[in-house]
Write a structure and sequence with these properties.
It contains nine helices and six strands.
Length: 211
């Protein structure tokens, strides 16, 4: 089975990162009083203008891309996928990583180093255009992805018509439902869903015949 895995929000808890760091930045500095946890992006969570948003990331981006840990059991489960014969693609719309300039090369290096340090193994990592809603859909079609693990409602909506999607559950994607869409609350639940899909589609049977 070909498995696509998102980074921000799936391998990491980016919403939790914002929850830990953004209140101090926005609430104290700009007297914000509420947080909208049903929104995907920190700019929408706090209703801040673009200038404040850029200042927040300028202060915190290195902490996130370098030191933020992977979600519990993510590395272990991804290694199990590989050990069981699946093909794993890391498919990310991480900001700047798609670009050809210095920022792009630097972000791609940060991503690959973070994956290595957190024990996330893979066959290939693919960086999609952050500003193109259809970019992940195109990759899923090109790589013939069987199931994509994602959290972003925008990605889920465009991928579900062409591949199965496992949503990593968060408050901001609770409204996402439909055909080809499943939901998991942690990485062990993701593993169980993939195993069930194997049984239904015959992948598990073929794997045992081959190996």
């Amino acid at each position: 089975m070909k498995i696509g895995i998102d980074i921000d929000g799936v391998l990491t808890d980016i919403h939790g990162f914002h929850r830990r760091h953004a209140p101090e930045y926005f609430m104290r500095k700009y007297q914000r009083t509420t947080i909208d946890d049903s929104r995907f992006d920190v700019q929408e969570m706090f209703g801040c203008p673009p200038k404040e948003y850029r200042a927040y990331w300028k202060k915190h981006w290195a902490r996130y891309v370098i030191t933020e840990p992977a979600r519990a059991d993510a590395g272990k489960i991804v290694r199990q996928f590989l050990d069981e014969g699946h093909t794993v693609y890391i498919i990310s719309k991480r900001a700047y990583a798609y670009q050809n300039g210095v920022k792009g090369r630097l972000m791609r290096a940060f991503v690959r180093n973070w994956l290595r340090r957190n024990g996330i193994n893979y066959q290939e990592v693919i960086f999609c255009d952050h500003n193109a809603p259809e970019s992940k859909r195109r990759v899923c079609l090109e790589k013939d992805i069987d199931v994509m693990i994602d959290d972003d409602p925008e990605n889920i909506d465009v991928i579900a018509p062409v591949a199965k999607v496992i949503i990593y559950d968060t408050l901001y994607n609770r409204h996402c439902r439909g055909e080809n869409i499943m939901r998991a609350f942690d990485w062990n639940a993701i593993y169980r869903l993939i195993c069930n899909m194997e049984t239904e589609d015959g992948y598990g049977f073929m794997y045992h015949l081959m190996f």
